[in-house]
Amino acid sequence: MTNPIKRTVELQVLDSSTGEALTGVQVTIEGFEQAIWTDDNGKLSIEVSSIANTILTCSLVSFETRTLELTELEDTTIIYLSEK
Question: Which CATH superfamily is domain 6-81 in?
Answer without folding.
Answer: Carboxypeptidase-like, regulatory domain (2.60.40.1120)
